[in-house]
């Protein structure tokens, strides 16, 4: 399945794309990363290409000879999703079809909408807002192409990311932690005491690398293995303890205040659409992924140690 000359193409060089590139390179594979800027990925032997991945012809040419194409793209703020995701997803699907590469998509849990109980390999998609509908539609398009024999497609789905490489402001827990580790009160948008699944960036990369090269994964979506859920308050307490910071001070913003702010802030309006994930227990169960592929979540204490050190240093700059 693997080889020193086997090409793997990654679209996107954020935390996930960069971690995946490093992992595949370490395994002796040829790795090509495509971004608009062409910025280099800090991993030996990784080729960085500047290109518009939404250009179907350009992406198809870059994908020739690839064993797998990994969609690790992030079009940016929620406000541009409806405009930028459809052509990008279509170009990725076209490139996979024309090159014969496996299409491996990194996705989230928005497509499930509010759930009653843990999200498993069998949980149906029931999106409750346009972001979830978009991600669900992208998967359905890929799945239909897979079932028609035009492509081989699979998808990894992760809960909110945690890890040292996660940028400030990329998710609520990173935003809260920036305040806590700086000694400030963190304004939280939902109940800080509800259990919630957090997915390590390295575990996402491990899952993508695994399902891209294992035909048992193709034609299905897989939940990334994660540690048992922890409330936002507990995560912030542990990060503060390890960083030598004071006990977190949290102030919950009333929902009516958030709704009022959403009338003038597009970003806040979009965040309101997914706060159901923090109003009740939100648990992603990757047991099936562990059973089939042997992928284990990184030990929680390791994640906390590395994240606390990186985020604390960043908060003090």
From TrEMBL:
It comes from Leucobacter weissii. Residues 9-207 form the NAD-dependent epimerase/dehydratase domain. This is NAD-dependent epimerase/dehydratase family protein. InterPro entries: Epimerase_deHydtase, NAD(P)-bd_dom_sf.
């Amino acid at each position: 399945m693997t080889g020193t000359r086997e090409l793997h193409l990654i679209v996107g060089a954020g935390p996930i794309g960069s971690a995946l590139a490093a992992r595949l390179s370490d395994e002796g594979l040829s790795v090509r990363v495509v971004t608009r800027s062409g910025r280099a990925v800090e991993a030996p032997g990784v080729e960085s290409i500047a290109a518009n991945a939404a250009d179907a012809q350009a992406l198809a040419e870059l994908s020739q000879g690839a064993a797998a194409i990994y969609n690790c793209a992030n079009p940016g703020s929620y406000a541009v999703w409806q405009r930028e995701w459809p052509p990008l997803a279509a170009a990725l699907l076209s490139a996979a079809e024309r090159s014969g590469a496996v299409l491996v998509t990194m996705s989230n849990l928005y497509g499930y909408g509010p759930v009653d109980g843990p999200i498993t390999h069998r949980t149906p998609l029931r999106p409750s807002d346009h972001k979830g509908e978009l991600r669900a539609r992208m998967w359905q398009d890929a799945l239909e192409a897979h079932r028609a024999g035009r492509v081989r497609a699979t998808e990894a789905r992760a809960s909110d990311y945690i890890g040292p490489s996660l940028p400030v402001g990329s998710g609520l827990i990173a935003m809260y932690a920036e305040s806590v580790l700086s000694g400030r009160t963190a304004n939280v948008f939902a109940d800080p005491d509800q259990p919630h699944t957090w997915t390590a960036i390295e575990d996402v990369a491990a899952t993508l690398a695994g399902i891209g090269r294992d035909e048992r994964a193709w034609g299905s979506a897989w939940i990334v293995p994660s540690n048992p859920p922890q409330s936002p308050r507990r995560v912030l307490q542990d990060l503060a303890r390890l960083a030598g910071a004071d006990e977190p001070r949290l102030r919950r913003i009333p929902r009516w205040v958030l709704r009022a702010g959403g009338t003038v802030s597009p970003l806040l309006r979009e965040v309101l659409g997914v706060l159901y994930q923090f109003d009740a227990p939100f648990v992603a169960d990757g047991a099936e992924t562990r059973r089939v592929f042997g992928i284990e979540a990184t030990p929680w204490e390791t994640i906390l140690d590395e994240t606390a050190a990186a985020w604390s240093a960043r908060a003090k700059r």
